[in-house]
Automatic annotation (TrEMBL):
Region (Disordered): 33-105, 503-524
Gene Ontology molecular-function annotations: hydrolase activity, acting on ester bonds
Transmembrane segments: none
Stored Pfam families: Lipase_GDSL_2
InterPro entries referenced in this protein's UniProt entry, alphabetically: SGNH_hydro (IPR013830), SGNH_hydro_sf (IPR036514)
Biased composition annotated in UniProt, kind: Low complexity: 71-86, 508-524
Gene3D superfamilies reported for this sequence: 2.60.120.1360, SGNH hydrolase
Protein name (record): SGNH hydrolase-type esterase domain-containing protein
Domain SGNH hydrolase-type esterase span(s) in chain numbering: 328-476
Species of provenance: Corallococcus interemptor
Domain of life: Bacteria
Residue stretches in coiled coil: none
């Protein structure tokens, strides 16, 4: 991954130079240990690869999804406590960061895989006599402007909820690095005391852990305790269970924990010095313990004095302006399972994080469960609307964006046979789009951006899918992250310059045709 290593002053000067029509030079790249160089060769097609995060790409040839009209979703945006209306304006600092080496390679890969990219649908929520006064993503775009104009010390937080597509962090890692390259790095944000499974990386967890059992909202049978916004809690299964975090100069931190009956205290220490000790009451509440970190501290330990203690997360953040992206994805999650979030914890923790963008990567498990006849489209609509309303009520000043599912193929495909598109996939996308727009959120069609029907087959032929043909791997994940990052940055550039479409209810936006997309389509 490429991280720009330039000062904010130089970056601002570069931005003004772009506005004046001067071409910015490329930047040196460095690849962190968890990444590996792209081994694919640049495309030799006559179609040039996009040359910027928001570069215009050809329109997707994938047909628009169609679905049987469902009962209208009643917009909830009017009931939310909205920030004071402010006319979107084009900041004098707005210009796309230079394309990184990694970004250029992924754009070339997008051309090879026929992934055209796409734009965010950003409905207008408030109008005035001159046009749209506030769109769904205005709070986020305004926060980005603030990071450039008057940086201060307050970061802009993105809370990314989702399923296994982001739980490994790699897709949102691309989004995080692209945004921190342009707007600064505000720190790591929400972390876990241990991994969600015995395997995987530790980018968003303690560096070393032992003695913890993970429980997630994605489990088939509901665990005994509800969840905070991480969708995960870790239960101490032995005395002195510990998670050790390598500090990066953070001045303070916060421990999120569950006060369960019979559990002993949790101890927070730095380099052997105790900073805080929890005082359990055993009433089942989700609690917060904050602590100050001494200058020069190297290691932070969270230790359970006895079995049964529960940790929901640890927040480590800098006192610097920039982007913080909290990865809150959970394997097997869907909007229905997010109902397992405890209401008090949801409100308190989202208010503490004060995100400027609520980002949802959902739809893959919904379409799979529709295929298995474990749910139905009205339930998919209802539960997504409920999730959006709950999170937006807890963070009323935040923008909201739903990212639809990627291409998917039918379960039970025979080896050597042509892949068949998953039934209900396009119906799920259409349902999510209608609900998102009706609830006052933006929508990004990842399926169309990656090339629509047949795109998963192309990813698989290029070696970017796991054997289950469900989960992308390697630079397939990176490319999906790049598509989302490109769309966000392009939307920021266009905010206030391109009129936002008026907000419509689901019934107004439903397709006139009664054709169903529930029938599987053959994928070449």
């Amino acid at each position: 991954m490429t991280v720009l290593d330039v000062s904010r002053g130089l970056w601002r000067a570069g931005l003004l130079a772009v506005l004046a029509g001067v071409l910015l030079p490329g930047c040196e790249s460095r690849t962190p240990p968890h990444r590996f160089p792209l081994t694919t060769t640049p495309a030799t097609d006559s179609v040039p690869a996009p040359q910027g995060a928001g570069a215009t790409r050809p329109t997707s040839e994938a047909s628009q999804p169609s679905a049987r009209p469902e009962p209208a979703v009643v917009p909830a945006s009017a009931s939310l406590t909205a920030p004071a209306a402010s006319k979107p304006r084009r900041s004098e600092f707005r210009a796309l960061p230079p394309t990184s080496e990694r970004g250029g390679q992924l754009h070339a890969l997008a051309t090879r895989l026929k992934a055209p990219g796409g734009r965010v649908e950003d409905p207008c929520l408030e109008t005035d006599d001159t046009g749209c006064a506030r769109s769904a993503l205005t709070p986020f775009y305004t926060a980005l402007d603030g990071l450039l104009e008057t940086p201060g010390t307050t970061p802009t937080v993105i809370a990314a909820f989702g399923n296994s597509l982001i739980a490994g962090d790699r897709i949102v890692d691309v989004v995080r690095e692209d945004l921190t390259a342009g707007f600064g790095d505000g720190g790591r944000g929400v972390l876990l005391v241990d991994r969600m499974a015995p395997y995987g990386g530790r980018n968003r967890t303690a560096a070393v852990s032992h003695g913890w059992q993970p429980r997630t909202l994605g489990e088939l049978k509901a665990p005994p305790h509800p969840f905070g916004i991480t969708g995960v809690y870790h239960l101490a299964t032995e005395d002195r269970a510990r998670g050790r975090f390598k500090l990066e100069g953070e001045p303070r931190g916060t421990l999120w924990w569950k006060d369960v009956k019979g559990a002993g205290p949790l101890v927070v220490s730095v380099d052997g010095t105790v900073l805080a000790r929890t005082e359990p009451r055993g009433d089942g509440a989700s609690r917060t313990t904050s602590f100050e970190l001494p200058a020069g501290a190297k290691w932070l330990d969270v230790t359970a004095e006895g079995r049964g203690a529960i940790v929901q997360g640890v927040v480590l953040q800098k006192d610097e302006a920039g982007i913080v992206l909290d990865m809150l994805g959970v394997p097997s999650a869907d909007a229905t399972l997010y109902a397992r979030l405890e209401e008090d914890a949801l409100k308190a923790q989202l208010q503490q994080r004060d995100p400027k963008l609520l980002l949802f990567f959902l739809g893959g498990n919904e379409s799979k469960r529709l295929e298995w006849k474990r749910t139905d489209l009205p339930t998919v609509r209802q539960d997504l609307a409920a999730l959006l309303r709950r999170t937006r009520a807890a963070a009323p000043g935040s923008a909201c964006l739903v990212v639809g599912p990627m291409d998917a193929v039918q379960d039970g495909h025979a080896k050597g046979k042509p892949l068949t598109q998953r039934p209900f996939l396009e119906a799920t996308i259409q349902a999510e789009r209608e609900v998102a727009l009706a609830e006052g959120c933006g929508f990004f069609d990842l399926y169309a951006a990656m090339g629509g029907a047949g795109s998963l087959a192309r990813f698989n032929q290029a070696g970017f899918m796991h054997d289950d043909l469900v989960h992308p791997r390697g630079h397939g994940l990176d490319l999906l992250g790049q598509l989302v990052s490109d769309a966000l940055l392009a939307g920021w550039m266009d905010d206030g310059a391109v009129p936002a479409p008026a907000l419509k209810t689901a019934s107004e936006d439903a397709p006139a045709s009664s054709a169903s997309s529930e029938t599987a389509e053959a994928v070449p």
